[in-house]
Amino acid sequence: MEDRGYYCHPTAQVSPEAKVGPGTKVWQNAQIREGASIGANCIVSKDVYVDQDVTVGDNCKIENGVSVFHGVRIDEKVFVGPNATFTNDLRPRAFARNWVVTPTIVKKGASIGANATLVCGVIIGEYAMVGAGAVVTMDVPAHGLVYGNPARLRGYVCQCGAPLQKQGDTGVVTCRECGEKVDLGG
Question: Residue 16 has what DSSP assignment?
Answer without folding.
Answer: T
